[in-house]
Design brief:
Helix content is about 60%, strand content about 10%. With about 575 residues, it is of the alpha+beta class. Among the domains are: about 175-280, Butyryl-CoA Dehydrogenase, subunit A, domain 2; about 460-560, Four Helix Bundle (Hemerythrin (Met), subunit A) (Up-down Bundle), CATH 1.20.120. Strands 3, 4, 5, 6, 7, 8 and 9 form a 7-stranded mixed sheet that branches. The protein has a two-stranded antiparallel sheet with strand order 1-2. Strand 10 (about 320) and strand 11 (about 325) form a beta hairpin. The longest helix has about 40 residues, at about 375-415. The model has no long low-confidence stretch (mean pLDDT about 95).
C-alpha cells in the first residue's frame, strides 16, 4: 500500500515546480506583502513553495492511509435518504472530519476569510489526489468553487458572512443548475425568482434535479428573475441556505460515486439572496462557475485514471500466464504503455490549464479590487480569460475520455477478476463513467471549445512554444509537430470555407481533437526540453497521436456537402 499520494507521484512535483508558479504566488501574495498582515503567510516564493509541499504531503498521506482504504466501504454503503433528509456514509463523514481538521476546506480562499490563499494549481493537485483515493469524496471536498463564486461576485457583506464558514468546514456547497427540461440547455431554466416584499430577498419556486451534494448548507441557484423572458438574459444567480422552502424529494440510485448524494430539489418560496447583478446569472456567473467545475472534473478524471493504471500495473507485474508475468506479454505491455502515456499527457494539459486559470483569476480579482486598474492589466485579464475559457473544455474532454479508456483497459488487464465487485477496477470503471457526462458532456465541451479554436485563441501560445530552441531528438519531434500543425490549419481553413453550418458542426469534434493533440504535444515537448528524461514520454505521444491528426484531416477534406436530411433517413432505418 502506498503511504503518500503526493510523494509517490513525481509527476505532481514536476508540475508544481513549473516556473509560472512563482509568478502565480507573487500575484496571490500581493508581492509577499501579505506576510505583514498574516503571520502564517510566506515571505518569499521559497517559503510559499515549502508551504504548498507541506499541505500536499499532508493530504497525500491522508489519501493513502485513511481515505483510500475506506473507499470500498463508502461505495457499498453509499449516501442515505430518509424522511427528506440526506446523510453521508459513515466513512465519508470521517474523511470529511479529517480534511477539516487538516485545514483543507478553504484552500483557495483569501486569508482574511480564513482560507489558505493557495493557487488553483495546488488545489487541482489536491483534487487529483482525493479523486485517486475516493472519487465520490472529491464531489464533497471539491465543491469549494461555490465559495470562490461568492468571493468573486458577491458583495463584501456576503463574503464576510459565508466564506469563513466554508474555510472552517462548517458550510459546504452545491450548485443547482440542471432541471428536468433544462440539462445542457441552461438558458431554458424555468425555476422562478420573485422579489420578496420589504426584505431585500427573493423567493424561489421550481424544480432542480441531478444536483451533486444537493443536501449542502449553501446552494447557488440559477433562476429566472425577469418575468416573460425566454433566454439566458433573463436568468440571475442566487444564494440559498438549505432550510425552509427547500425540499429534498429524493436522491438518485446511480451507477457510481455512491458516496456522493445526487439530489432532486423542490423550492417552495425559498428565501434567497441575489449574487451580483440581475440578468448576468448565466452569461457571467455560471459560465465562470462552469469553467471551475470543468477543471475540477478533469482533475477528478485524472485521479481515477491514476488509480486504475496503478492497479493494472501492479496486477500485471504479479499475475503469471504461460510462464511470464502479464506485463511481459507484448499486447498487455502495449496497453499499459498507452495508459501511462495518456495519463501523463492529460496531466500536462490539466496543469497547463490550471496555471492559466490561476493567472486569469489573479488578474480578475486584482482588477476588481482596484477601480483604477491600468488598461494593460484589464487587457491582460481579457486575454487570459479567453485562453482559460478554451483550455478548460479541452482539458475536461480529453481527461474524461482518457479516464474512461484507462479504466476500461485496467479492467481488461485484470481479466475476469476485474469484473467482480470485490475488486477495485470494477468500482473505478463505474465511477469513471460520469466524468464525460456531468458538468457538460464531451459533446458539449466541443461546442464550448470550437469557437475559440476557430478564432485562433491558442496561436500565440503555440507560437511561443514552437519558437523555443530544440536540439537532437527534440528538434525532430518539433518538426513533426509543426507539420501536424500545418495539416490542422489547412483542415480548419477548409471547414471555414465550406460555409455550411451542418458540416461545421459535424467536423467540430475532429477539429477539437486535432487542436488538443497539437497543444499537448507542444506542452510535452517544452517540458521534455526542461527535463530530458521526459523525451521518451513525448516521443510516445507524438508517435501515437499525430497520425490521428492526418486521419481527421483526410476525413474533413474528403467529405462532400453533407445533407442533414439524408443523415436522418439513415438513422430511421
Amino acid at each position: 500500500m502506498h503511504s503518500n499520494y503526493f510523494s509517490d507521484n513525481p509527476d505532481l512535483l514536476f508540475h508544481l515546480q513549473n516556473p509560472v508558479l512563482e509568478e502565480l504566488s507573487t500575484l496571490r501574495e500581493d508581492d509577499f506583502r501579505q506576510a505583514e498582515r498574516f503571520p502564517q503567510a510566506p515571505t518569499d516564493f521559497a517559503a510559499a513553495l515549502a508551504l504548498y509541499v507541506d499541505k500536499l504531503s499532508l493530504l497525500g498521506r491522508l489519501c493513502a492511509e485513511e481515505i483510500a482504504p475506506r473507499a470500498s466501504a463508502v461505495d457499498r454503503e453509499g449516501a442515505h435518504f430518509e424522511q427528506g433528509k440526506v446523510s453521508y456514509a459513515k466513512d465519508s463523514k470521517e474523511n470529511l472530519r479529517l480534511l477539516t481538521e487538516a485545514g483543507l476546506m478553504g484552500v483557495t480562499l483569501p486569508r482574511e476569510y480564513g482560507g489558505l490563499n493557495f493557487p488553483c494549481t495546488v488545489y487541482t493537485m489536491m483534487t487529483e489526489m482525493v479523486s485517486r483515493a475516493d472519487a465520490s469524496l472529491q464531489n464533497l471536498f471539491g465543491l469549494q468553487d461555490i465559495a470562490k463564486t461568492i468571493l468573486l461576485f458577491g458583495d463584501e457583506q456576503m463574503r464576510q458572512k459565508y466564506l469563513p464558514r466554508f474555510a472552517s468546514g462548517e458550510a459546504d456547497g452545491a450548485m443547482a443548475l440542471t432541471e428536468p427540461e433544462a440539462g445542457s440547455d441552461l438558458q431554458s431554466v424555468q425555476t422562478s425568482a420573485a422579489p420578496a416584499p420589504d426584505s431585500g430577498l427573493w423567493l424561489l419556486n421550481g424544480h432542480k434535479h441531478f444536483i451533486t451534494n444537493g443536501c449542502a448548507r449553501i446552494i447557488l441557484v440559477l433562476a429566472r428573475s425577469e418575468p416573460g423572458s425566454v433566454d439566458g438574459r433573463g436568468l440571475s444567480l442566487f444564494l440559498l441556505e438549505n432550510g425552509p422552502g427547500v425540499e429534498i424529494k429524493s436522491i438518485e440510485d446511480k451507477l457510481g460515486l455512491h458516496g456522493s448524494p445526487t439530489c432532486e430539489l423542490l423550492f417552495h418560496d425559498a428565501p434567497a439572496q441575489l449574487i451580483g447583478q440581475r440578468r448576468r446569472g448565466l452569461t457571467r456567473y455560471v459560465m465562470s462557475l462552469m469553467n471551475g467545475a470543468r477543471l475540477a472534473i478533469a482533475a477528478q478524471a485524472q485521479g481515477i485514471a491514476e488509480a486504475a493504471y496503478r492497479l493494472a500495473l501492479e496486477y500485471c507485474g504479479k499475475r503469471e500466464q504461460f510462464g511470464k508475468t502479464l506485463r511481459q506479454l507484448a499486447p498487455v505491455s502495449e496497453m499499459l504503455l498507452r495508459m501511462k502515456v495518456n495519463i501523463m499527457a492529460g496531466r500536462s494539459l490539466l496543469y497547463e490549464t490550471s496555471r492559466y486559470v490561476d493567472l486569469r483569476d489573479s488578474y480578475e480579482y486584482m482588477n476588481s479590487q482596484n477601480p483604477e486598474a491600468s488598461a494593460e492589466n484589464r487587457q491582460k485579464e481579457k486575454q487570459l480569460a479567453r485562453i482559460a475559457a478554451l483550455l478548460t473544455p479541452l482539458s475536461k474532454a480529453f481527461n474524461a475520455e482518457m479516464c474512461n479508456q484507462v479504466c476500461y483497459d485496467s479492467m481488461q488487464c485484470h481479466g475476469g477478476k476485474g469484473y467482480m465487485r470485490e475488486q477495485k477496477p470494477e468500482q473505478l470503471y463505474r465511477d469513471a463513467r460520469i466524468t464525460n457526462i456531468y458538468e457538460g458532456t464531451t459533446q458539449m465541451q466541443v461546442v464550448a471549445a470550437i469557437g475559440g479554436i476557430m478564432q485562433r485563441t491558442l496561436e500565440p501560445m503555440l507560437d511561443e512554444m514552437a519558437a523555443l530552441t530544440y536540439s537532437g531528438r527534440l528538434a525532430d519531434m518539433a518538426s513533426e509537430i509543426a507539420k501536424a500543425r500545418k495539416v490542422f490549419n489547412q483542415a480548419r481553413s477548409h471547414v471555414e470555407a465550406k460555409a455550411d453550418g451542418y458540416f461545421f458542426d459535424l467536423m467540430a469534434r475532429r477539429l477539437v481533437a486535432m487542436q488538443t493533440s497539437i497543444l499537448i504535444a507542444y506542452i510535452m515537448l517544452r517540458d521534455a526540453r526542461n527535463q530530458p528524461d521526459r523525451q521518451a514520454l513525448c516521443q510516445c505521444f507524438v508517435d501515437t497521436q499525430l497520425p490521428e491528426i492526418n486521419k481527421h484531416s483526410q476525413i474533413i477534406h474528403a467529405a462532400e456537402k453533407i445533407d442533414a436530411a439524408e443523415k436522418e433517413k439513415v438513422l430511421e432505418l
